[in-house]
Amino acid sequence: MTDLAERMAKLSPEQRALLDRRLRERSRKPARLEEIPRRSRPNRVPLTVDQERIWLIHQFDPNDPVYNVHFAWRLLGELDVPAFEQAVNLLVRRHEALRTTFELEGERPVQVVHEHLPVTVSVQDLTHLPEEEREAAMMRAGQEEVRRPFDITRGPLLRVLLIRLGPQEHVMVGTVDHLVWDRQSLGIFDREVAEFYTALVTGREPQLPELPIHYADYAEWQPRWLRDEVYRRQLPYWRKRLAGASLTLELPSDLVRPPVQTFNGARYEFRLTAELTTALRELARRENVTIYVLLLAAWNLILHRWTGQEDIVVGTTSTTRSRPETERMIGYFLTMLPLRTMVSPRMSFRELLRATRDTVVEAFDHHDIPFGTLLDELDVPRDPSRNPIYQTSFMFVDFHEDPVQMPGLRLEPLVFDNRTAKDDCMLCVFDDEVLADHLFGLFEYNTDLFTEETIARLARHLRLVLTQAVADPSRPVSAFSLLEPDEAERMRVEWNRTAVAREPGLTVDELIRRRAAATPDAIAVTSGDRRLSYAELLDR
Fold it and tell me: Is the confidence at residue 425, as pLDDT, over 90?
């Protein structure tokens, strides 16, 4: 493959759709895009449509940490704690989103931008503990930290905890409210805190260009842009795409669904072998799809087989950072896309791949409509016990950013579990071709619906489906086996060993006499509501 072809093959579906759209727009020679202006009200602006959805969930239960986002580093080496705290606050000064709180103005929520909202880096010293106990204590402290709720009316909505494990080892746990943060914000945080810290400890000026606008500018501009540009071009697509869709996925649960949706969750982690990962990448290349589409097709197949439904709707995240001004800005630039795919038991996996690819490309080509707007415009029925439109989601995280570097420090990422789940079940797969030769992933699931055993079975089924797809992509959907070889052996052979040894020569009436003598009151025969004990049967 040429270098250009290799680069194109690594593009996500969203990147491909965005590139296609920009090429089409350039071929039509459109007028220069209007720049996002600075806002007219300096400190108080409306929320974006997708921010409002998170804000509403905060109102239902302000203490629920479901929209807490966290990130963590293990810092190995000599850490200058005062310089690190100063670097964090220089970042907060640079990005207005991290100096924002939320309150009601009349009947509408607004975001309030503060001139100063400093962040204190808390330090928890565990060096007084025996060395063999520190790691477990650190994990407990981190878990507690990422579950602590935010007061969105007071702020700050960013917390940073440093856990000291030794003179050359710290763990940094950052927690932030999703109202002001998305995944790309994490990369911006990492790079800019590292730049500020490096500048402070080496005595040079930070090398960061001035931001053209801030998140509040985008929030004030967005409604006019949606009204003037997006609704007219994209709403008709979604009206047609979701017309008649099955908006409830009946994934069999272990527990009775609560009448009001809960967000209690857990994670189940898994990995795919290096051999299977290599084979999947080769299959994706041959079929001209991304690994994202291949994994989503497998997830669609499993959902079809588990539910018996052919109309499958899965949610996925999409960034709304379609303007150059937003690329280097911390803020919430996410929306959810409903991906609707029809899965027939007669279609081959190859056909399912193509249907999934078409669904993904079309959806990302119409991704500017906020999910909250879709709910309102399509008048989607609401059920307080579940998410509207989709109840399961799929995420794919492709690590392609350079590792963060700070003088005298080596950084290793850490993950804590805040024990929440936004959906009934979410599959997330991670791909880091630089550091790992295999795909790894997790299921985030609602513990008020599913047990860990059920989710472990889902993970096994994912491996089985992917293995069979690699072996024969022409295999029909109905022909995929969801049983491991030992499970199939157990069902076909062990569970069918029903022969019973008995003494030779005994007649049926003799067997009944013996059983009546041993357990005369045991039920021998039932017919409708009538029952006979062995004693009564013997009398008959």
Answer: yes
Q: Are 291 and 466 in contact (CB under 8 A)?
A: no
Which amino acid is residue 185, in one-letter code? S
Question: DSSP of 96-154, one letter per residue?
Answer: GGGGEEEEEETTEEEEEE-S-----EEEEE-TTS-HHHHHHHHHHHHHHHHHPPP-TTT
**β-strand pairing of 440-446 with 158-166:** unpaired
- Mean pLDDT, residues 430-454 taken together: 90
Q: Is 233 exposed, middle or buried (0-12, 13-18, 19+ CB in 10 A)?
A: exposed
Residues 345, 22: contact at Cβ < 8 Å? no
Share of the chain above pLDDT 70, in %: 91
Q: Are strands 425-431 and 392-398 parallel, antiparallel or unpaired?
A: parallel
Q: Which of 119, 118, 102 is nearest to 174 (CA)?
A: 119
Query: Do 322 and 171 touch, CB atoms closer than 8 A?
Result: no
Task: For 316, list phi and psi in degrees, rounded to 5.
Answer: -150, 155
Between β-strands 121-125 and 158-166, what pairing exists: parallel, antiparallel or unpaired? parallel
Task: Note whether 159 and 87 are within 8 A (CB).
Answer: no
pLDDT band at 255 (very low <50, low <70, confident <90, very high): very high
For residues 463 and 468, give the distance between their C-alpha atoms in angstroms, rounded to a whole number: 9
Mean pLDDT of 68-86: 97
pTM of the model: 0.84
When pLDDT is averaged across residues 435-451 and rounded to a whole number, the result is: 92
* Distance, CA of 382 to CA of 405 (rounded, Å): 47
Q: In this structure, are residues 414 and 74 in contact, taking their beta carbons and an 8 Å threshold?
A: yes
Nearest Cα neighbor of 141 from 169, 122, 167 is 122
Give the DSSP H/E element, type plus range, for residue 156: none
At 283 the three-state DSSP class reads: helix
Q: Which residue did the predictor score with more confidence, 63 or 501?
A: 63
Contacts 24+ apart (CB under 8 A), 273-280: 273/438, 274/437, 274/438, 276/438, 276/463, 276/466, 276/467, 276/470, 277/437, 277/438, 277/439, 278/437, 279/470, 280/439, 280/466, 280/470
